[in-house]
Known about the structure:
This protein is of the alpha/beta class and 191 residues long. It has one domain: Rossmann fold (3-Layer(aba) Sandwich). The protein has helices spanning 17-35, 50-64, 72-75, 122-134, 177-180, and strands spanning 12-15, 41-45, 76-78, 110-118, 139-147, 159-163, 170-175, 184-189. The chain has a five-stranded parallel beta sheet, with helices on both faces. Strands 1-8-7 form a three-stranded antiparallel beta sheet. Helix 1 packs across helix 2 (50-64).
Amino acid sequence: MTDEASQPVPARTVLSGDDIERVLTRIAFEIIEANKGTEDLVLLGIPSRGFPLARRLADRIAAASKDESIDPAALVGQLDVTMYRDDLRHSTARTPSPTKLPSGGIEGKVVVLVDDVLYSGRTIRAALDALADWGRPKIVRLAVLVDRGHRELPIRADHVGKNLPTAKSEKVRVRLAEIDGMNDVSIEAIA
Length: 191
């Protein structure tokens, strides 16, 4: 006989691969609308899953734009925030990823930071600090696949795929084909 209280709670899928594709398409259109087009637009993904999300968004933005000369790769960059985090002394070692800016840089551009999950806001605070070292954008916006709440800093996303109320005792797991071989978002209890 097993003790049901000791059994792990299975992960609950909240976004399937198809759901992720739909919300990314919606976010892409929101970004185009907020920017009144694609002029001076830069998408900076925060490693590790923000970068593939930014690439997917750039593909959708290019496809939806009336300007057929847009190269999706020219819209996308990667912004590493590892050395700007305020929890480096308290967490396990992190391997920095390279920061790669589009050839036009970010000076005077509309920069959309892209991340998978918005939680405390500390990663985005670190991203804003890192961004300041690379230039002065005209506007900075934030797009996230999931906003799970529990903010510790006054930061909010401009574009959200799904608002997902969670308990602090839960973990939101985002899996993307580019990294994990599959696409989904699930909630699981922290052991």
